[in-house]
Write a structure and sequence with these properties.
There is one protein chain. With about 160 residues, the protein is an all-alpha fold. Helix content is about 90%, strand content about 0%. α1 crosses α2.
Amino acid sequence: MNINATLILQAIVFAILVWFTMRFIWPPITKALDERARKIAEGLAAADKAKADLAAADRRVEEELARARTETAGLRADAERRAQAIIDEAKARATDEGNKIIAAAQAEAEQQAVRAREALRAQVAALAVKGAEQILRREVNASVHAELLDRLKNEL
């Protein structure tokens, strides 16, 4: 065999092998590689989308937490204001009630003082009549001397 013929024959076989590979083997391989690249790209895109969704969800959660904290603080402040208003109202009512009780007690004390003065006047008048009776050694008639006794009561 001649080396040139061998080289030519090998070149022809190599060319047939290249043509056969390019025609039947290379397209499924490139198709599989393209499909794999597409799946990888889709996976990366999905991962990026999931990352963005997670970040957005985190922002929404933080916003909701901030809003809830603000709302809770507002409710707490409102409750404290209401409690203070109730306390102030109760203090005012207690003060008013205390003032009413004091006024009633003062009025009652004044009435008792007036009654005591009237009773004392009556007793003094009776003692005065008895004293005058003993001085005069005779009985003074209270019904006859009622005007005199009334004047004596008023003077005392």
